[in-house]
Amino acid sequence: MADTRRSVRRGIVVRDILPAFKGRLLCEVTADDLRALCMRVKERGAPATAVQLRDIIKQIYADANLHGEKVENPADDVGIASIATFVPKDRVLSPLEIRLMHRQLEQVATYPTIRLALRLILLTMVRKSELIEATWDEVDFEAAVWTIPKSRMKARRAHNVYLSRRSIDIMVALHTGAAGSRYVLPSRYSADRCMSEATLNRVTQLVAERAKTTGLPLEPFTVHDLRRTGSTLLNEAGFNGDWIERSLAHGGEGRSSRAVYNKAEYAVQRRHMLQEWADMVDAWVQGSGHRPNLLLSDMAMPTVIARAL
Predict the structure, then answer these.
(1) Domain 95-285 class?
(2) What residues does the Tyr recombinase domain cover (predicted)?
(3) Of 249, 255, 262, 301, which has the most beta carbons under 10 Å away?
(4) Domain assignments of the chain as residue spans, ordered by start
(5) 51: closest CA among 93, 22, 16?
């Protein structure tokens, strides 16, 4: 088991399973007990954690029976589908949905820093964990660049995130909100810890639920869908695929033989592209459009507009 996966599962045991079942015999934990615990975890905005919790319990009981215990496995009567269903991993928000997301973010009950965090993920296309665990010593405000160390990157390679003017504005606001914490997004309960990833998940659910109750065409989405949205819409706008892949930190992850050999950083191009992306998002939020400059030719590009509702 990879170290990261082991750490995640250990955290679930310590944070969720032990407080609920510590001191109880294996035969005393019922399927109803397990289902109720999974529902509590799901309701705090962590359905994937709830599914992993069920899998851990299933493995614990399977191992116990393998070593001579004769006890019913409560997880056998708790199907994954009864805990959570997951949307296909191809969700991309349209320009109109981006506008609606921003509007609904202002209406749901949450902290300003969480609203800012979701907007920043859309603008920078970073992974959720990369922002959640970010510290202020990674951010250079003068150079407008955020350098994520290789220890926190999936590809184990340091990654520069070039910050648009809008992203810098958000970082400044987050720095004020952090109130001296070393973390960009500190926990509400301790400035010495970063925010829980489940917090952002729950807010995206609230946004989609509110849109549904008001009859707005904003389908459910996840935090990771914001990253995919940026990638897809930049590709559709005609930006260089290598710039986009490097901005996503995909280079060197074995996606293609070309990715393995192309080590260019495209710093200037990526900075330009992310500023254009921020301008596109700003325009959509206002209900208008922005024709991006691709730096490739002077051919006219179509202007995509998020029509106001």
Answers:
(1) mainly alpha
(2) 88-274
(3) 249
(4) 3-83, 95-285
(5) 16
